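Reference record
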Amino acid sequence: MHIENSSDKLPTLIKEGCQRKRFFPQRNPARGEFTLKGGVVSRSELSRRTLLQAMSAGALSAAVGARAFADVHDRKDVAGGPNIALELSRAGSFLATGGVDEAGMRRLRQLGVTHVIMGGPQIPWQEGDLRSLTDQLKAGGLTLGNLMIAGFPNTLYGRAGRDEEIEKVRQSICVAGRVGLPVVEYNFYAHRLVEGYYAQTGRGGAGWTAFDYDRVKDLPPLAEEGAHDLDEMWKNITYFLKAVVPVAEEAGVRLALHPNDPPAPLSRGSQQIMGTVAGWKKLVEIVPSKANGITFDCGVTREMGEDPIEVCRYFSKKDVINHVHYRNVRVEKPYEKYAEVFLDEGVNDMFAVMKELVRQKYPRLIYPEHPRALDYDREHAGFNPYYPGGGGYAAYAYNVGYARAMLQAAQGS
């Protein structure tokens, strides 16, 4: 039997398959008893031996779950090579190429894209809802490969109520596993410093997305967020990972944490745990597991002044690259001043990046994100990109064509 509490100590779980249940012991002070699943246990029975037995059973369950994850999930993943993916949305996301309807799905298929990434619904995810979504995409010739999960601010900031949020995340991961979703992506920002983005003019009047830390480095913390140092953020994510990674292992789902982007030193007074490659390396060691991985973003890697080939190789050897973002940048000052540009004109050797992914036998999705603003997209009614200098469907078509050419060339080399 496992006992869970809502204090600062990590909750443990009663395990019933992936139907893990929160279980707070109900104390009867008058009798010195705790009500546990299966009956009443007196305070004296909660001995060191009892707790050690529970811990040993939990460790064995985790080991079995990890082995099942490796045996079943990875076999499914490596059946094919990497696939290029684009985003669709149920709610009109500015980052998406269309909605989950016939027109939106045709847009992807016409570009040769067969895999979809999306923002997830409100947590906890419901099995019927996700199954309906995957069936709808399948009918349109598409496969859902990655959902972004969000909606746990108390967990980010270590506030009261985080256990309830984490339980919803765990339930959602179980649902993802049951419907066959291989990857769940997430962010862990105290604040994302998007205020530092601005539009720059690129070749032929096209749009770039630039970032300048000097413009925003003195912005104060927001009241609803506060300011958080590295120690605090590492404690918060450690608590989160120890609660969710075992569930992900059992469900056959890989988690992918996106790096802090922009990777500025401070974001409205808060430090950023995923704003350095050292932070990425620390993350995957908190709970060593293929289910505890990262989104490898070669653009962010270069924004930090790092070599994306070396970084790709390091995390590929550990098999913890669970999603890839494929884009290019020009960097004036690492971490602080750069511009997101077309795939063919930045500092990164994008062919070398793709060759390394192929060499390492990376089998999952590649998202050629952050399209540049083109006049053809700007001329369409309703064009309103999320990022200044960002583009739309025509620019995505360029990104997909470029990324596919790199992939085909890398596979043939």
Summary: The longest helix spans residues 48-77. The CA atoms of residues 65 and 383 lie 46 Å apart. The longest strand covers residues 143-148. The domain at 82-412 is CATH 3.20.20.150 (TIM Barrel).
